[in-house]
Structures are given as structure tokens and as C-alpha cells.
Backbone:
């Protein structure tokens, strides 16, 4: 697989790997147990120029495509799941929406600051009453002169506790169905906008999840991204490309679990030989290695389609679906290979076992990915 990386991707991989081993891995257990936002790690990612990935250089970003992004995310996720979630939400959800759908003035206002890490981005689509069925969102934005007046709430918003820039999906006219939805940028501190920290997650515990509340919150219409009524297609487009990032995260999580399992199997002895010398353990490792490579190949295929401007909705859903289930199986097997020591904290495989689980839920559950894939098969047939 490594042979298929471009020179730039291989360089980025090495940079991200060195950073992950030095800055992420040693702090990952604390981030998890303290539910602590990885601020120092985020600042470190800014310092090595990774926060601007996929943002055009002309707008103050670092350039590169989803192929480069996937390589970096895999390395981050193999070391610290929480930091990879923070990074993905900042780059491939929040900042990407502004970079791809903002007009020149909006891009100039936010993209350089987001690329430098001066501000953190969040992406607010889910609500207490709507998750998979995002079209049912009920946060309203009524026009009043040059402002939208926003009322409603959002839940499960990654980075919400620390973000300065929120891409918020609102409904400006419920009678218009998906054509009533808009994406607007709301900045921290806007009057009528409050953020409440949500604690107690199973995994990805450093990812600063928040509930957002809007009470007569006024935001200039000039903060709307794309044309009036285009918010739903903005969300679909961004989620479709960002699923490549989640797939890469899953490859990283699976690899982290697999590498820990290989190491442990080579150290631990049972019945007079290393675990690695028992064929049942070898078979688990063989399955893990094979599935991880397959997930990575699907991820890079989807990334390449995104980067070449080709249709990728089904392919990114396939990559996310398969990679998240591979990460689930890899984490399960890695805990099994560790026996009792894999069940107690602080154990890396125990953490990955919990961190991985949400990859089958966020940015579209596995059921929703299957619906997307099935729809594309049936559309092709007709
Ligand atoms: C840690 C975490 C971080 C998150 N970060 C963000 C974020 O930054 N921004 C954001 O906007 N959202 C975020 N989310 C929300 C996430 O995207 C939603 O939880 C997810 O889309 C599922 O929505 P739901 O929880 O409302 O579940 P529901 O939509 O209520 O689904 C419940 C179950 O029903 C199934 N289901 C629903 N519809 C169908 C159907 N048509 N056919 C078959 N099965 C179906 C689902 O697959 C699931 O198994 C986050 C969630 C978590 C847990």
C-alpha cells in the first residue's frame, strides 16, 4: 500500500507520524481519562501546518487534497482518537464548508485564521429531534432586514466547547422542504448564542462535544454560505467528502489496535510459547492486517475520486462503512489478544475499543451508509 503514496503524501505521512508518536501518543490516555480537549496537540498541528490541508493556498490554506488528508488522519488516529476527531471536524467539516462554499470575502475572513489554528471550527447539523433525518431540522432562521434571527438548538457538536466559528444549518422556510435550509456562520460570542459542554462520552472523550442554543440570535445574512436555500446540498456535499476522513480515521484506529496486538503477541507467553506462535492468534492478526489494507484501499479510492472532481457519494459511503466495521473488528480482536490486560485502563486497545464505536454512528450511521450505497445501485439499474 505504501508504494501507492505520492512523494508529497509520503513526506506528509512521515511528518504526521513523527508528530503523532512524540506529541499525541504519550498524552492520549490522559486526554481520554480527563475528558480533556487536546489544546497543546491542536496547537502543534497548527505549528506544523496541517490545519490548512485541503484549503486552497490562494485563500491562506495549505493546499493538498483528500489523499494527503487521509494519510495524515490515519497517523493521528493511530495515536490518539480524540485528537483525530478534533482535527477532522475542524478541517474536513467546519473549515472545508467555508473554503468550498464561502464567497471570496467570507473565505478571506475565516480560512486563514482556521488554517493557522487561531480559531477552531465546528459543524452543527444534528438536533435533539433530528440526526439521520437531517432534513427534519427545526432550528429556524427568520429574515429580519439584513439579519437572520435564529432560534433552536443543536446537539452532539464536536469542538463545540472550544470553537470560535460554527457552521450552523438552519431552516428559513419549512414549507420549502430541503430548499428552505441554509448554512450560516455563527461566531462565538454572538448575542443569544450559548454553548453547554456535554460530558460522559464512551469514547473520543477529548473531542469537546457541546449542545448549542440559539435564542433570538441575530446573524448577518452576509454570513450565509452559498445561495439561499442551498444549505442541504452544502451539507450533503461536505458529509460526502468528509466520510473519506472518517474512513481514514478508522484505518488509523484499526492500525493502532493491530500494532498493539502484534507487539503484545510477541511478548506474552502462554503454554510455553509466545502468543504469536499460536495459530489462532496468527489467524486473528492475518485477518486484521488484510482488512486494514482493504479499508485503506477503499479510503484512498474515495479520496482520489474527491480530488479528481468525480462522483464519490457511494464510494465514500462504502469506505466509511467498511472501514468503521473493520476498526470495530480490529479493536475487538486486539482486546481479545490482550486478554484481561486489555480490559483494564490505561490500555491502548481498551481506549480504541471505546473510541472506535462512534465511527459507526457519526457523519451518518452504518444504516445510513447502506441506504446511500443501495440508492446508488438502484439508481444505476433504472
Ligand atoms: C461523539 C459524537 C459526535 C458528533 N459530532 C457531531 C457534529 O460535530 N456535528 C453534528 O451535526 N452532529 C454530530 N454528531 C451527531 C451524529 O451525526 C448523529 O448522532 C448521527 O447522525 C445519528 O443521529 P441520531 O443520533 O439522531 O440517531 P437517529 O437518527 O435517531 O438513529 C437511531 C438509529 O436508527 C437508525 N435509523 C435511522 N433512520 C433509519 C433508516 N431510515 N433506516 C434504517 N435505520 C435508521 C440509525 O442508523 C440508528 O441506528 C455526533 C454524534 C456523536 C455521538
Residues:
Amino acid at each position: 500500500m505504501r508504494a501507492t503514496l505520492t512523494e508529497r503524501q509520503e513526506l506528509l505521512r512521515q511528518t504526521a507520524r513523527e508528530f503523532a508518536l512524540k506529541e499525541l501518543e504519550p498524552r492520549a490516555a490522559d486526554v481520554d481519562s480527563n475528558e480533556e480537549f487536546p489544546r497543546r496537540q491542536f496547537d502543534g498541528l497548527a505549528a506544523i501546518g496541517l490545519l490548512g490541508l485541503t484549503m486552497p493556498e490562494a485563500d491562506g490554506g495549505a493546499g493538498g487534497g483528500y489523499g494527503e488528508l487521509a494519510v495524515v488522519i490515519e497517523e493521528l488516529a493511530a495515536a490518539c482518537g480524540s485528537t483525530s476527531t478534533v482535527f477532522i471536524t475542524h478541517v474536513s467539516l467546519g473549515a472545508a464548508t467555508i473554503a468550498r462554499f464561502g464567497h471570496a470575502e467570507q473565505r478571506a475572513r475565516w480560512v486563514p485564521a482556521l488554517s493557522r489554528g487561531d480559531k477552531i471550527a465546528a459543524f452543527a447539523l444534528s438536533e435533539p429531534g433530528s440526526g439521520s433525518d437531517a432534513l427534519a431540522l427545526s432550528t429556524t432562521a427568520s429574515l429580519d432586514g439584513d439579519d437572520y434571527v435564529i432560534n433552536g438548538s443543536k446537539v452532539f457538536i464536536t469542538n463545540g466547547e472550544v470553537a470560535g466559528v460554527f457552521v450552523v444549518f438552519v431552516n428559513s422556510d419549512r414549507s420549502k422542504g430541503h430548499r428552505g435550509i441554509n448554512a450560516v456562520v455563527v461566531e462565538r460570542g454572538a448575542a443569544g448564542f450559548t454553548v453547554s459542554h456535554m460530558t460522559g462520552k464512551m469514547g473520543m472523550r477529548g473531542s469537546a462535544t457541546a449542545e448549542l442554543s440559539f435564542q433570538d440570535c441575530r446573524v448577518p445574512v452576509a454570513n450565509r454560505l452559498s445561495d439561499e436555500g442551498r444549505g442541504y446540498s452544502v451539507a450533503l456535499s461536505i458529509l460526502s467528502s468528509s466520510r473519506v476522513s472518517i474512513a481514514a480515521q478508522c484505518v488509523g484506529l484499526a492500525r493502532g489496535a493491530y500494532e498493539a496486538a502484534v507487539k503484545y503477541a510477541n511478548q506474552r507467553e502462554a503454554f510455553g510459547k509466545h502468543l504469536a506462535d499460536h495459530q489462532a492468534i496468527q489467524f486473528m492478526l492475518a485477518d486484521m492486517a488484510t482488512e486494514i489494507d482493504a479499508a485503506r484501499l477503499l479510503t484512498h479510492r474515495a479520496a482520489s475520486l474527491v480530488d479528481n472532481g468525480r462522483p464519490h457519494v457511494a464510494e465514500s459511503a462504502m469506505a466509511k462503512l467498511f472501514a468503521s466495521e473493520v476498526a470495530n473488528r480490529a479493536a475487538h480482536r486486539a482486546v481479545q489478544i490482550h486478554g484481561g490486560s486489555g480490559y483494564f485502563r490505561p490500555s491502548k486497545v481498551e481506549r480504541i475499543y471505546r473510541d472506535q464505536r462512534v465511527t459507526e454512528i457519526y457523519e451518518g450511521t452504518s444504516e445510513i451508509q447502506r441506504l446511500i450505497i443501495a440508492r446508488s445501485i438502484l439508481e444505476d439499474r433504472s
The domain at 2-120 is CATH 1.10.540.10 (Butyryl-Coa Dehydrogenase, subunit A; domain 1). The chain has three domains: 2-120, 123-230, 232-381.
